[in-house]
Amino acid sequence: MADNEGPKGTQPPGSRQGGGVQEPSRRKFLVNAGYAIGGVVVGGALGSLIRRNNKAAAPSPASPSASPGAAPAAEPKNYNRALMFLTQEQFATLNAATERIFPTDDTGPGAQALGVAYFIDHQLAGEWGFNGREYMSPPFYHGETVQGYQGRLKRREIFAIALKEMDNYSQSQFSKNFVDLTADQQDSVLSDFESDKVPLTTISPSGFFKMLRSSTIEGAYSDPLYGGNLDMAGWKMRSYPGNQMSYAAVIDKEFTAMPPNSLQDHMAGH
Amino acid sequence: MAKTLPKTDVVIVGVGWGGGIIASELTKAGMNVVGLERGKERKTEDYFMVHDELRYSQRYELMQDLSKETVTFRSNEKMRALPMRAYGSFLIGDGIGGAGVHWNGQTFRFLPYDFQIRSKTIERYGKAKIPDGMTIQDWGITYDEMEPYYDKFEKMAGISGETNPLAGKRSSDYPNPPMKKSPPMQMFEEAAKKLNLHPYMQPSANLSQNYTNPDGIARAACQYCGYCERFGCEYGAKADPVVTVIPVALKTGKLEIRTHSHVRRIMHSGGKATGVMYTDVTTGEEIVQPADIVVVTSYVFNNIRLLLMSKLGKAYNPATGTGVVGKNYAYQVLKGNALGFYDDKKFNLFAGAGALGMNLDDYNGDNFDHSDLKFIHGASISIGQTGFRPISNNQVPSGTKAWGQEFKANSIKYANSWISVGGQGSSMPFQHHYIDLDPEYKDAYGDPLPRMTFDFEDQDRELAVFMANKCEEIQKEMGASRIDKLKSLGPYEITTYQSTHNTGGVIMGADPATSAVNNYLQMWDAENVFVVGASAFPHNSGYNPTDTVGALAYRASEGILKYAKKGGSLV
């Protein structure tokens, strides 16, 4: 049920021993670093890398712009941009809400441009949406704040209920659905969820808001393989270099800007 | 009926640091060992995609599956304990290597004061200094007796560091020189020296250079990639059981590791264990593994729970303070810190290593006068550069709205311009802090979950604020443009991450009436059962626990070898 999207899909499960993965970035790094003790390469991951070194290269993971036969100069298609769980209406509400939490401004793109709502949709479709690795067994009692979430609803159920309730509340306050409100009105709806001013019995408005806020930040800054942080633009805004092999050369130096790498760079090489 | 397998010399419950060290020492000495691990196999090749903050840090890739097993929690006995349904305050490891895989590598020795905390506190301040209900006690061993075992663990793991001027005497230097110093660390060092404090480089299990240990295990130097805590090390540069002690044990041909084997009971009769019963979680089959010696080496909660479920050792009774199993649960007081924002400076905060940092112990243990203070012990104050990843590090000055344009602008403005100076506070035990079996909630196999009863006390609140003020003084000297510090410590809550330094419950000591194991970690009530881990700590110091866990595991190994030869109580 987990991540079906992105470059992972190009490597069938269990293909690790088959040498189906190329690691030019690591190889280059190791050779340059002379990464060995007395000529013997140490460390499991490093050892396995050298073993793989001699294997034939596998085809690189599909990169739309590099696909043979693709129409020249066409905008590359992003197959990640489809919904796994949310309805179109829910998606539109979520997209608008995440944009208010993390808006486009002088610092750079906001949630919408980064694809945060796609990220959340895909997460809700998987293990996280089902609270798959969390203790969801009964009995359920009302707990104290210090004891954390004690409800029986799963994240995907909470999101579905909350997105509907955002519209209900928007209608009650402004006679419009959330997506049709002005930015200020949207902010006031979100603030009322944040401060539990919205009277709900099914879910905790502030509990939902916390989840919405944290998953928005996750969508802005997680590796692009999950559907958010489009083109690593979230990382670029804050000079985060993403996935790098080594900072040994800069750790004791003043701030050093460098272009970011994604996990796909690890798979595909440069 | 459970299937019964042929008997082995020693069975180990859980293959992390404790189990790995015991297995390597015993198999080197020729004993046959079976290691039972409820989780899966682990190797460095698993970490090909490890630079993934979402998967490892936010979704807890390496941690125990809480849907199968968790703990329940209440602040006090008047409350109903409820399950920790999702991760927060601490993270429980799983699989080969256990929590030793996802640690940061900070490797401190406890202070001489720690091992004799009760006598030394009374000696200097009088009995009245210890408040009612605080159940501190001496460990039944001294720092000088512990020293050779610390030394052994540090050489095995290849610790990189420099001598701490305010700690116990060392028989030899760290096996590797300290790690590199980042500019924020240099600022901290300079400021601390100006304040007449004693900064030193954090002792690190991330290697500062390539290193071959006394067992012949060669490992590579740390690359400061910034993915240690909650992650496994793709280089094997961070010492963990998988790249150090376990291969040594396997090479002897005398260790058999069985993964997916969840131990549920210690079988015993007449004050001696006969083996363990476990469930093969892939088939559901119950299996009995007979053994001459049983070594319990799982994480704190399961060490306690397994003894209680097996009815081995006297269960603790918080009403009377009698009994021992489950007693003296302690934690860590981590919120006493000061966060500095630096308007005109930028640092490489994305770079780092789990144990890259500087510490000072001027306010730790009894290194300072507590006569006029309302707490004992203290904290190690440090600056850490662990590698600050973007999802979990969005520091903004207090007063900033939690979301929207202002939040975004400030979090980006300060993304590489903040420094945290914090105190890792010790945690004293109290009569009403303990672990027992939950009366209601069960794990996936129908066994009761462990139940934690714990809250912060006046001791912790005083300590946290004192440390926050000291951290603020250092930040001022470092030149922060703005400082936000802890003003008061709230109640303990299980929802936000603090520390995976849970301790106590099967504590060591010199007296069977007040401790569960002797100073070889041998159970008073069952001479062929050894219980290894931070569960043996009678209190928790102002340091990370792993060096002491490792040292005690070497001490226990020595005890087990002695016991195998002559039997009986070792003390």
How would you describe what is shown here?
The complex is a heterodimer of chains A (270) and B (571). Chain A has helices spanning 24-33, 44-53, 88-101, 111-114, 116-125, 155-174, 183-194, 205-221, 233-237, 263-268. Chain A has 270 residues and is mainly α. Chain A has a domain at 80-238. Chain A is globular, with a radius of gyration of 23 Å. The relative contact order of chain A is 0.15. By secondary structure, chain B is α/β, with parallel strands linked by helices. Chain B has one domain (3-566): FAD/NAD(P)-binding domain. Chain B contains eleven helices and 23 strands. In chain B, strands 1, 2, 3, 9, 10, 11, 12, 22 and 23 form a nine-stranded mixed β-sheet that branches. In chain B, α1 runs parallel beside α11 (546-566) and α6 packs across α10. The chains are: A mainly alpha (270), B alpha/beta (571). Chains A and B meet through α2, α7, α8 and α9 of A and α2, β5, β8, α9 and β18 of B.
